[in-house]
Specification:
The structure is a single chain. 0% of the residues lie in helices and 50% in strands. The chain is mostly beta strands.
Length: 114
């Protein structure tokens, strides 16, 4: 069973930065793709970013391109989401996801931008 544990959320002013971490309880070399989703109150869940195991290929939602960077350290079984130039509309619960079809989800971490 794969468990994903996010950390790093919090309250930040607009223009500030946060770095989310996602620790996997299994060897993340077995997780081809890891990613991040978010859900704001009253809105649909949105895919934010993803990164593959091989070559570390990344993809981003248009809404975060140029501001967010995702990375992974397979020696630490951890993925990261560096979020810069945060906007109030980035306020949401952020979820780490992994596995085939993103069948593994973390519990979520709240990000609030004032």
């Amino acid at each position: 069973h794969v468990k994903l544990v996010e950390s790093g959320g919090g309250l930040v002013q607009a223009g500030g930065s946060l770095n989310l971490s996602c620790a996997a309880t299994v060897n993340s070399n077995n997780l081809n793709c890891m990613g991040w989703f978010r859900q704001a109150p009253g809105k649909e869940r949105e895919g934010v970013a993803s990164i593959t195991r091989i070559h570390g290929g990344t993809a981003y939602a248009d809404s975060v391109k140029g501001r967010f960077i995702t990375s992974r350290d397979n020696t630490m079984n951890t993925a990261y989401l560096q979020m810069d130039s945060l906007k109030p509309e980035d306020t949401a619960v952020y979820y780490c996801v992994a596995g085939v079809g993103y069948n593994y989800w973390g519990q979520g971490t709240q990000v609030t931008v004032s």
